[in-house]
Backbone:
C-alpha cells in the first residue's frame, strides 16, 4: 500500500485526489478486533467522510448563493413591490433568520428535492436537471469508453517500448491533454470532421426529422432507440455522438495513457519482472500477465477520476455541439444569472463528481489486498 | 569563465549569495540538458517578452476596428487574418499574452501563499487545527474545480478580476496539501528543535524555517498547475464570464470566432494555438523542474 500509494502520489501531480485516495493509510484499529468489526469501523468512517464531503458541497453552494450581489427578495417580487409585499416575501423566504438556520433550511429543502425554480425555463430546477442529465451521461460514458479502450493499450505499449518514437508521441499526446482547451478542440473538430470531411454529423443529438420520434424512457437516446427497435435512429444518434464523445475521449485517453505508462514502467522495473524474464517467460506474458495485473487496481481509480472529469469537461463542449445536456443548461443559466439553476446544476455535477470519486475509492480498497 | 564556473559549483560556498547562485546555476544546467524543459523555458520566456514588448511586436492596434478589412484570411499584412470587426488577430493574440500572464501570475500570487500558509500551519501544529484545516481542504479538493469556478464567477459577476479570484479559490487546496506533507517530513527534525530551543516563536519557525523548505516543491507544483489555470481562464472567457470585450483574451477570442468556424476558421483557431503552446510550455517546464528540484518524486525512468 505504502509503496504503491507513494508511486501514485509521485506521478499523479495533476490530481491530488488520486494521491489522496491512494495515500490514505488503511485503517488499523488494533489486532484484537475481528475482521468484521474492522470492516464495520472502516465502513462507518467512510460513510462519515462521504457525508461530510456532501455537506461541504452544500455549504459551498449555499455561500455562493449568498455571494450574489442581487437581493434575492427583489428577484422574486420585483423592484416596484410595495414595502409590505417585500417584507412578506422576505419573511416567507426565511431571510430574516440567522445564517445557520438558513443553512439548515437550505439543506432540508435540497434533501427534499427542492432546488428552486429556474428563471429562464420557468420550471423546477430538479425537473430540468432530470431532463438534461441523461444527455451528458451518454456523452461522457461514450467518452470514457473511448478513453479506456485506447488509453490503456497506448500506455502499456509506450511503457514496453520505452524511449521509442511511439513512446515519445504517446507522451506528447498525454501532455496535450493538459494543454488543449476542450472547447477549441470541439470547434476545430466540427470544422474539420463535419464541415470539410463530412465524417460525422453536426451539432445536436439527432437529425431534425428524427427528433421526438422515440419516447424518452431512460433519456439516453442510444438505449431508447434500441428499446423502440429503431436502428435508424440508433445509428443517427451514434453518428451525432461520435465527435463530442471523441473530443471527451481524447482528454480521457491522454490522462489514462499517461498514468498507465507510469504504472507500467514502475512494474516493469520491479525484480519479479526480471525474474520472470530470466525464467524465459515471453515478453508478451511478462507485460500482460505479470506487469499489467497489479496496475489494474490503481487504474480503476484513474478511470474513475477521468470519468468524473469528463462530466465536468462536458460543460465546456456541450454548447459547441448544441448538446441538450447539463453543461448547456448550466451555461445558459450562467449567462442569464439564473442562480437557482446554476446552483442546482453545480450541486448535481458536484455530487456526481464526488460520488464517482468515492466509489473508485471504495473499489480501490476492496480490490487491493493490501488496503483491505 | 572557468573561475566563474568553479566559484558557482564550489562545494563549500563562502556566502549565502554564492550558495544560492550556485544552486540556480546547477538548476539551469540540469534544465538545459533536458530538451523538453528547455523548450518549455524558452516558450515561457517568449511569453514574458511578448507581454512586455507587445506594442513593438504587434503589427496593428489590437482594438482598432476596420470593417472594410473584416474576416480577411491570414496573409502578409494580417499574419493571422482579421476578425469580424476587422481587427488584426495577430496583434490581439500578442496583447492577449499580457492578459494571460497577468491571470497566471495573480492566481499564483493569491493561491500559492494561501495554500502554503494553511498547509504549514496545519502540519506544524497538528491536532485539531490540522483536522479542521485539512477537512476544509479535502472538501475543496473533492469539488469539481471548473464548475466551482463557474458558479463563483456567476455569483461575483463576470469580469477578469472575479475570474482570477474564482480560480485562486479553487486552486489553493492542492498547495495546502503539499505544504502540509512537506512540513510533516521535517517538523520533528533537529534543526527545528534547535531553533525552538533558542526561543523562536511558532510564527518565526513557520515563516523563517518551514516555508522556505516548501518552496521548491511548491514551484514545481505551481508551474505544473499553470496549464490548468490558463485553460480554466480561457474557458471562463469562452463562456463570456471572464475577460470582457474588447479585451483581447484568448478564450473570449475563440468564442467570437465560433460563428465563423466553418468558413473563416482562423478567427477561432489562432488564439487556440496560442493557448496550446503556452500551456504546453508550462507543462514541459514543470516536468523538467520536477526532475531537477524534486528528483525523488519525478519519473525516474
Residues:
Amino acid at each position: 500500500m505504502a509503496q504503491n500509494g507513494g508511486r501514485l502520489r509521485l506521478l499523479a501531480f495533476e490530481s491530488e485526489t488520486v494521491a489522496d485516495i491512494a495515500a490514505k493509510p488503511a485503517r488499523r484499529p488494533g489486532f484484537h478486533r475481528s475482521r468484521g468489526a474492522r470492516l464495520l469501523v472502516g465502513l462507518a468512517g467512510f460513510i462519515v467522510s462521504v457525508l461530510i464531503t456532501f455537506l461541504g458541497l452544500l455549504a459551498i453552494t449555499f455561500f455562493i448563493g449568498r455571494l450574489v450581489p442581487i437581493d434575492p427578495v427583489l428577484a422574486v417580487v420585483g423592484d416596484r413591490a410595495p414595502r409590505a409585499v417585500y417584507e412578506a416575501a422576505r419573511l416567507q423566504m426565511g431571510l430574516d433568520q440567522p445564517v445557520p438556520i438558513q443553512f439548515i433550511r437550505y439543506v432540508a429543502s435540497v434533501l427534499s428535492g427542492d432546488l428552486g425554480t429556474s428563471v429562464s425555463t420557468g420550471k423546477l430546477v430538479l425537473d430540468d436537471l432530470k431532463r438534461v442529465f441523461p444527455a451528458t451521461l451518454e456523452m461522457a460514458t461514450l467518452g470514457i469508453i473511448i478513453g479506456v479502450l485506447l488509453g490503456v493499450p497506448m500506455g502499456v505499449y509506450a511503457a514496453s517500448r520505452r524511449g521509442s518514437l511511439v513512446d515519445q508521441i504517446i507522451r506528447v499526446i498525454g501532455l496535450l491533454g493538459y494543454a488543449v482547451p476542450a472547447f477549441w478542440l470541439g470547434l476545430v473538430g466540427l470544422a474539420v470532421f463535419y464541415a470539410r470531411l463530412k465524417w460525422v454529423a453536426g451539432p445536436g443529438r439527432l437529425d431534425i426529422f428524427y427528433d421526438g420520434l422515440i419516447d424518452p424512457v431512460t433519456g439516453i437516446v442510444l438505449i431508447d432507440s434500441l428499446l423502440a427497435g429503431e436502428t435508424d435512429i440508433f445509428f443517427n444518434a451514434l453518428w451525432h455522438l461520435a465527435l463530442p464523445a471523441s473530443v471527451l475521449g481524447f482528454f480521457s485517453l491522454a490522462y489514462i495513457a499517461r498514468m498507465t505508462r507510469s504504472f507500467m514502467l514502475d512494474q516493469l522495473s520491479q525484480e519479479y519482472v526480471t525474474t520472470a524474464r530470466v525464467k524465459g517467460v515471453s515478453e508478451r506474458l511478462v507485460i500482460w500477465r505479470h506487469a499489467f495485473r497489479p496496475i489494474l487496481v490503481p487504474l480503476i481509480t484513474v478511470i474513475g477520476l477521468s470519468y468524473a472529469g469528463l462530466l465536468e469537461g462536458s460543460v465546456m463542449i456541450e454548447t459547441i455541439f448544441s448538446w441538450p445536456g447539463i453543461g448547456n443548461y448550466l451555461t445558459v443559466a450562467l449567462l442569464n444569472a439564473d442562480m437557482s439553476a446554476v446552483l442546482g446544476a453545480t450541486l448535481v455535477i458536484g455530487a456526481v463528481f464526488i460520488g464517482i470519486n468515492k466509489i473508485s475509492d471504495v473499489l480501490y480498497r476492496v480490490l487491493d489486498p493490501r488496503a483491505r | 569563465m572557468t573561475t566563474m564556473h568553479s566559484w558557482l559549483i564550489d562545494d563549500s560556498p563562502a556566502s549565502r549569495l554564492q550558495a544560492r547562485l550556485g544552486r540556480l546555476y546547477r538548476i539551469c544546467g540540469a534544465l538545459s540538458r533536458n530538451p523538453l524543459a528547455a523548450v518549455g523555458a524558452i516558450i515561457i520566456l517568449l511569453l514574458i517578452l511578448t507581454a512586455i514588448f507587445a506594442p513593438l511586436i504587434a503589427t496593428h492596434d489590437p482594438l482598432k476596428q476596420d470593417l472594410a478589412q473584416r474576416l480577411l484570411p491570414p496573409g502578409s499584412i494580417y499574419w493571422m487574418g482579421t476578425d469580424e470587426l476587422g481587427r488584426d488577430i495577430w496583434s490581439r493574440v500578442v496583447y492577449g499574452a499580457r492578459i494571460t500572464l497577468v491571470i497566471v501570475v495573480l492566481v499564483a500570487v493569491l493561491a500559492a501563499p494561501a495554500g502554503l500558509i494553511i498547509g504549514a500551519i496545519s502540519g506544524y501544529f497538528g491536532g485539531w487545527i490540522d483536522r479542521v484545516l485539512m477537512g476544509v481542504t479535502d472538501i475543496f479538493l473533492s469539488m469539481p474545480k471548473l464548475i466551482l469556478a463557474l458558479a463563483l464567477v456567476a455569483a461575483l459577476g463576470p469580469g477578469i478580476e472575479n475570474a482570477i479570484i474564482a480560480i485562486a479559490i479553487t486552486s489553493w487546496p492542492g498547495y495546502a496539501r503539499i505544504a502540509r506533507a512537506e512540513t510533516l517530513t521535517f517538523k520533528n527534525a533537529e534543526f527545528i528543535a534547535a531553533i525552538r530551543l533558542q526561543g523562536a516563536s511558532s510564527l518565526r519557525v513557520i515563516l523563517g524555517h518551514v516555508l522556505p523548505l516548501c518552496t521548491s516543491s511548491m514551484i514545481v507544483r505551481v508551474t505544473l498547475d499553470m496549464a490548468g489555470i490558463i485553460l480554466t481562464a480561457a474557458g471562463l472567457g469562452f463562456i463570456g464570464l471572464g475577460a470582457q470585450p474588447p479585451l483581447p483574451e484568448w478564450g473570449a477570442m475563440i468564442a467570437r470566432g465560433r460563428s465563423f468556424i466553418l468558413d473563416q476558421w482562423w478567427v477561432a483557431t489562432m488564439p487556440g494555438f496560442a493557448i496550446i503552446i503556452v500551456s504546453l510550455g508550462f507543462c514541459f517546464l514543470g516536468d523538467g523542474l520536477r526532475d531537477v528540484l524534486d528528483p525523488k518524486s519525478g519519473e525516474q525512468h
In short: Residues 300 and 363 of chain A are 8 Å apart (CA to CA). Confidence is low (pLDDT under 50) at residues 1-30 of chain A. The two ends of chain A are 10 Å apart (CA to CA).
